[in-house]
Amino acid sequence: MHNNNKELTLSAPLSGPVLTLAKVPDPVFASGAMGDGIAIDPLNDTLHSPCAGVVVHVARTGHAVTLRADNGAELLLHLGLDTVELQGEGFSMLVKEGARVSNGQPLLRYDLDKVAQQCKSLVSLMILTNSQDFQARPITLKSVKVGDPLLHIIRRQGSGAQAEVELSGEERVGHVRVAHRGGLHARPAALIRQTAQGFKSTSQLHFDGKSATCNSLIGLMGLAIGEQDDVQVTCQGPDAEAALQALLIALSTALAEDSHAAAPPPMNRHHREAEAGVLHGACAAPGLVGGPLFRLSAISLPVDAGHHDPAQQLQALDAALSVVRSEIDHTLSQAKKHRNTDEEAIFAAHLALLEDPALLDAAQASIEQGTAATHAWSQSIEAQCEVLQQLGSPLLAERANDLRDLKQRVLRALLGEAWHYDVPAGAIVAAHELTPSDLLQLSQQGVTGLCMAEGGATSHVAILARGKGLPCLVALGAALLDQEQGQAVVLDAEGGRLELVPTNERLAEVHQAQLDHQQRRALQQSQAHTPALTRDGVHIEVAANVASSAEAADALANGADGVGLLRTEFLFVDRHTAPDEQEQSLAYQAVLDAMGDKPVIIRTIDVGGDKQLDYLPLPVEANPVLGLRGIRLAQLRPEILDQQLRALLHTRPLSRCRILLPMVTEVDELLHIRQRLDALCIELGVSERPELGVMIEVPAAALLAEQLAEHADFLSIGTNDLSQYTLAMDRDHAGLASRVDAMHPALLRLIAQTCAGAAVHDRWVGVCGALASDPLATPVLIGLGVSELSVSPVQIGEIKDRVRHLDAAQCRRISHDLLKLSSAGAVRHACHQHWPLS
Ligand code: PEP
Ligand code: MG
């Protein structure tokens, strides 16, 4: 969401059809006398905050609330028309005056039926009450869901508020050396922009005689700042000093670039000797594959005759932009769910580019001259691509590819073309240049390799291709596009060669190599259903992390020895009412049934913190991650946990149902739940007790493992949160991603202490955080005493194979020495030496 001191994107506070103010059946609102704004005819029963801000006024009758957004815009949210006359009947206000609210936070709940029957209309308004300083521009006039982008708020040029911000703070100036690898390309620039948006002050970077506002990604990239370049930062406004300090840190802290580091150096095709029947390029992702060549072509636009209706074209562009925005949002949430940080960072940058004022303003200006939205968008992107390409930095030139990705996507949305290719599985795709979103789609269709006429080995497509294990060659030259559709080729990515006329022997040899690779994988899969024993006979259970019964079935098919973690949040999120006891019980039973005779560890609900539920308003917290999340919810809403425990006690057989408690910090929390469980068993006439385990994801729990193990049946280490809380680094922080590494010796010491504490009471310890899925960590975890690893379902075969090649006694000896090392990097290096990955 684009939120800075000048512009702000407001998300829909309600779900339902959107109306312009003119259509509102109320003369005062319809005339705009109250201010600019928009209306929604609501279908849901909760009003949510459209942005982050402060509640400045709450109507005594509970039907309206006014917020001040962080950029100074004041918004009146008014539920229904003439609802003041209901005198508060049917409304319940969830926030107080003065409270700080986050974007999407529930503000007000109302009885939909009652209010609808008693008032003139349910049409609800979002009005910009200081319209003299700001302008509101609708993003969509279709139906929206809560949280969809709805309105752009733009500060009017030269407005009083603008002057006030600029005058109300001194200018702060600082200098810093840029640490980002390759300089300020899209992802670091997105981080800078995001950092600046956290403050009210306006911020600029100055380099080499040029300046750019931190609001514009393209502007920032356009400065062509390289790694180790010295830049000047200026911030002006009420919080200039804080903004400056934050920007200096963001500029001088390198982003995680693991995948870049793994990239083989690009080769220059011009320096290669010509070889008949071979195109030379640079390796962007390794691998050797053969298959039919399949050419993809880009969209080309017909000539534009001009004289289009600007209002209509602007609306079409807005609608297309919001379609693409929600597609990218979906990709982002998938990437987040699967913890794919590369993918997440790339598409977050795309989202930021899509809102870039440099692009939008140019497109809008040309639409206003009568150009079609398609051509205006296309020209605006091409103009920016040219700027990037002329900067003389290959890395920035490659970012033009990200812009072209957005060009294609928005054009497809404008032209109403389905964004879908039909490529035969096994094909090697050839294109002028592929974009990140092309790549995601192609990889799902089972293509074997990628080659491009243009492109670079450090492009985002290259990062994604490496992540997906898809061999990829770039910079093969225009000749690539003259090749025949369907001709058999060999792509030797490491050799930088695309062999256009391979002999039958060569094709056979390559196929053999491909087969060998697949066979290894198949061998691992075929042995995935047998228990994993180390060479010296120690049994390690390899279970799966799942979030539904479908995923559980998939895990069983992949050889899982059980479910090591069922995250039950899946049942509670994205809905408007809580699942009742029966629905929960059926869902848990379905997971048990999907797992045959294997055990299933079901974690009680871990919401709170940053995961809010519509129907479960929790108090606003200054530090949600340190607040009422996990088991602490029992303190606030005991009935929710009781209901979940009851649902769990209805499942059969209880011997296979193990209950796991998240975020435990002290023994009393465990004892309390044990007592509740006993009481509920008596109430339900259940004689058997399910096993009860504790997650170790807070340092206090690891340090207290011995005491916890006395009362728990097992312990399961959540390395994701344990890293976050031990290292004091947000697990989702883009700039810290490479440092939130659970192989840090401090974490390993806590894991060792957990295992030692559990051993005193003869309890077993599992790991269900992401570290369990990292094959480099397998010997260390076994060595420290872990006996169960809960991994992502696709990795079961691989991790079991890894276990079978290890000697537990040797793992124990070496792992305890690793505790003395001084960094995660040193631990990883030592692991590569002792237990190389095959
Ligand atoms: C963890 O914290 O490691 C864990 C497994 O729980 P989650 O990722 O659901 O917070
Ligand atoms: Mg956790």
TrEMBL record:
Coiled coil: none annotated. It catalyses: L-histidyl-[protein] + phosphoenolpyruvate = N(pros)-phospho-L-histidyl-[protein] + pyruvate. Pfam families: PEP-utilisers_N, PEP-utilizers, PEP-utilizers_C, PTS-HPr, PTS_EIIA_1. GO terms for molecular function: kinase activity; metal ion binding; phosphoenolpyruvate-protein phosphotransferase activity. It is found in: Cytoplasm. The keyword Magnesium applies. GO terms for cellular component: cytoplasm. Residues 171-258 form the HPr domain. The keyword Transport applies. Residues 26-130 form the PTS EIIA type-1 domain. Keywords: Cytoplasm, Kinase, Magnesium, Metal-binding, Phosphotransferase system, Pyruvate, Sugar transport, Transferase, Transport. Its cofactor is Mg(2+). Transmembrane segments: none annotated. Its EC number is 2.7.3.9. GO terms for biological process: phosphoenolpyruvate-dependent sugar phosphotransferase system. It comes from the Bacteria. Signal peptide: none annotated. Gene3D superfamilies: Glucose Permease (Domain IIA) (2.70.70.10), HPr-like (3.30.1340.10), Phosphoenolpyruvate-binding domains (3.20.20.60), Phosphohistidine domain (3.50.30.10), PtsI, HPr-binding domain (1.10.274.10). Belongs to the PEP-utilizing enzyme family. NCBIfam families: PTBA, PTS_HPr_family, PTS_I_fam. PANTHER family: PHOSPHOENOLPYRUVATE-PROTEIN PHOSPHOTRANSFERASE (PTHR46244:SF6). This is phosphoenolpyruvate--protein phosphotransferase. The gene is ptsP.
